[in-house]
Amino acid sequence: MPEIAEVRTVKNVLKNRIVGKTIKDIKYRYDGIIKTDKNEFKDILIGKTITNVDNYGKWLFIECGDYTILSHLRMEGKYYIKPSDEEYEKHEHIIFKLDDGYDLRYKDVRKFGVMKLVKTEDIYKTDDIAKLGIEPDSKDLTDNYIYNKIHKSNKPIKELLLDQSIINGLGNIYVDEVLFESNILPTRLGNTITLDECEKIKEAGTKIIKKATECGGTTIRSYTSSLGVEGTYQEYLKVHTKANQPCPNCGEKIVKTRVGGRGTYICKRCQK
DNA sequence: ATCTATGCCTGGTGGC
DNA sequence: TGCCACCAGGCATAGA
Fold it and tell me: What is chain A's pLDDT, residue by residue, as a tens digit (272 residues)?
C-alpha cells in the first residue's frame, strides 16, 4: 500500500524515465480509473510532452505542460515502463504509448486507484489537493500544529494521524511505526495527547519517513516486481506485521488489534 | 456539523 | 480438490 515514501520513490523513477517523452496514444483497458471526462483525458493528453513528475503526500503529479494528471495509487496502483510491443498483463488498465517505443502502464489489481486531469496552474486549488495537511517530514510540521489539530478531538490518535488533512502522506504502516516510536497507544484519544507527545510524533514521523524514503519505501505484499519501486524499509519495521514477535525494545509480544477498522500492531508495554 | 455505514475491487486464506 | 465466506484497506459518499 503506497504511502508517501513509496510515492516519492515512484516519482523519482518516473522522473528519470518519462520526462521529455511525448504521449503518442492512450489506451483504456479499464477506464474506471479515470475520474474526470474520459474522452477529454485522451483528447488533451495525446500529443503532449511530459514535463515533470512530482508528488504531494500520496498524490502523484504527472505534469504535461499546461495539464497535469493527478494520480493516486490507493492500495495497489503501480506504474510500469515496458516496451510497447510487450503483451499486456492482466490489470494493466491505462496504457500511455510514448514516442520512444515504450509504454507507461498503470496496473492496479483492485482498481481502487484514481486519475484526474486538471490544469497545472490549478493543482493546488483542486479539492483533492487543497485540503491536504503538512507532509510528515516537512520543516513546517510543528508540535503546535499537530496539537492544535488534535487536542479537541475524541477520535483515536491513529485515526487522526491517518487523516490526510492533518498530516499528508502517512498510511497504516507508518502510523503504526510512528506511534510505536513515540510510545503512544493508537487508541489514545486526540484530546489526551500532550504537546510533548506531539513533539515526539513529529520527531518520529520525520525520522521514519526520511529513512523509509531513503530505502525506497516498504514492500510488504508484492505480487510482482516492478521498476525498482520495491523498497527495503520492511527490514526496519518494528511493529507493523510483527504480530506475536518480540518487541525490539522490551521483548514483550507484539499484539495485532483493530483501531478505526484497521489492522494495528502495538507493544502494550512500550506504548502508553 | 459530525458520525457511521457502505461501496469500490480482486486475490489470498482458512474452514469444511 | 473445490467451493465459499471472509479479509485486506484509502478514501468518497450517502444516510443518520
Answer: 789 999 999 999 999 999 999 999 999 999 999 999 999 999 999 999 999 999 999 999 999 999 999 999 999 899 999 999 999 999 999 999 999 999 999 999 999 999 999 999 999 999 999 999 999 999 999 999 999 999 999 999 999 999 999 999 999 999 999 999 999 999 999 999 999 999 999 999 999 999 999 998 888 764 444 554 678 898 899 999 999 999 999 999 999 999 998 999 999 999 99
A262 catalytic residue (yes or no): yes
Whole-structure pTM value:
0.95
Q: How is domain A4-130 classified at the CATH fold level?
A: N-terminal domain of MutM-like DNA repair proteins (3.20.190)
Architecture (CATH level 2) of domain A143-266: Orthogonal Bundle (1.10)
- The protein footprint on chain C, as nucleotides within 7 A of a CB, is 7-12
Q: What does the domain layout of chain A look like in residue ranges?
A: 4-130, 143-266
Decide if A4 contacts A54 (C-beta within 8 A). no
Which residues interact with strand B by a CB < 7 Å criterion? Answer: A 32, 90-91, 109-112, 154-155, 223
Q: What letters, b where the CB count within 10 A reaches 16 and e where it falls short, cover A45-67?
A: beeeebebbebbbbbbbbbbeeb
Question: Scanning the structure block, which residue is given the C-alpha cell 522522473?
Answer: A15
Task: Give Cα separations from A188 to A48, A161, A222 (angstroms).
Answer: 49, 12, 32
State which nucleotides on strand B lie below 7 Å from a protein beta carbon: 3, 8-12
